[in-house]
Design goal:
The chain has 306 residues and is mostly helical. It contains six helices and four strands, in the order αααββββααα. It has a domain of 182 residues: f41 fragment of flagellin, N-terminal domain, CATH 1.20.1330.10. The protein has a two-stranded antiparallel sheet with strand order 1-2. α1 packs antiparallel against α6. The longest helix is centred in the N-terminal third of the chain and has 55 residues.
């Protein structure tokens, strides 16, 4: 009887301890609203939750990259459009200059206009991003891509044509920059179009130079401006294609993230109603066990003697 009593007490103590641990777990779940707070709550679910959380973190990084890159491409697109507008303005000015009926003073004024438009075009190519980096200098984005060389009296390209890339999905990189200055290349000179425009504007502003002497230059530059606009058109197509790709990837990431979120919720979130009922059941069971424990404690050999 003595051994049996000790056994019974041990079983009851173990049961009360087990119930207490379970109640503590359920109360923590209700407090955090999470079913799995430590791996031991559900090892299989905990492993899957960890995997999904890592995937969600990676997706969030991709989405941040896409947002930043899309903004950068939009900035470049706006500046390329500005460059295109300036080229059209230069084209219109050259067409006026090609009219043989212009007086010398008119030609000087048109030459000054070309010079001002050229300066604006250079400023556009030397655009900086919000972070202070030059947009159109390739990977040399801390140096203005177009600079004036006093000795050569010409514009020189100080950037490069290397590309910068951003990772926007697993194994998918999208180029960040475009090669705007290549639209101005002529005759082996990286900035030939700009330098020819500068030379022409100087001639046109010099009253000692006869307009007839540079009429062919005007015609050549009209052809050069047409070629530059073709190059800019190709850049617009390229930028549009990248933006479309980013939109598709952003939508795909959003869909995957939402699906992962639903799975995470199913795995990790606590069912408050079910947990509350379960907690009450364990409370009741503990109370019953405790009452039984008291009854067993009160038993003795004399209870069987009558």
């Amino acid at each position: 009887m003595r051994v049996s009593s000790l056994n019974t007490k041990h079983i009851m103590l173990s049961q009360m301890h087990s119930n207490s641990m379970k109640m503590s777990q359920i109360m923590q779940q209700l407090s955090t609203q999470k079913r799995v707070n430590v791996p031991s709550d559900d090892p299989i679910a905990a492993t899957r939750i960890n995997q999904l959380q890592r995937e969600q973190s990676t997706i969030a990084q991709y989405q941040d990259n896409i947002t930043r890159l899309s903004g950068s491409l939009s900035t470049q697109e706006a500046q390329v459009q500005n460059a295109s507008d300036l080229l059209w303005a230069l084209n219109d000015t050259l067409l006026q200059a090609a009219n043989g009926a212009n007086a010398d003073k008119n030609m000087q004024g048109l030459g000054l206009e070309i010079s001002m438009l050229l300066d604006s075009l250079v400023d556009t190519v030397n655009t900086k991003s919000a972070s202070g980096s030059y947009v159109f200098g390739g990977t040399k984005n801390q140096t203005a891509p177009i600079q004036w060389d006093d000795a050569a009296e010409s514009w020189v390209f100080m950037g490069n044509h290397n590309t910068r890339e951003t990772t926007v999905a697993n194994g998918v990189n999208v180029t960040e920059n475009v090669q705007l200055t290549r639209c101005f290349s002529r005759g082996g000179d990286e900035l030939g179009l700009l330098n020819e425009l500068y030379t022409l504007s100087e001639k046109m502003q010099d009253p000692a130079v006869s307009p007839a002497s540079y009429q062919q230059d005007i015609q050549n530059l009209l052809d050069g401006l047409s070629d530059a606009q073709d190059g800019i058109g190709a850049i617009f197509t390229e930028l549009g294609g990248r933006q479309n790709q980013l939109t598709l990837l952003q939508n795909a990431h959003t869909d995957v993230s939402m699906a992962n979120g639903m799975v995470l919720s199913e795995l990790a979130d606590a069912d408050v109603a079910t947990s509350t009922i379960e907690l009450q059941l364990y409370v009741n069971a503990t109370q019953i066990t405790f009452k039984a424990w008291n009854m067993v404690n009160q038993l003795s050999l004399f209870n069987t003697m009558g």
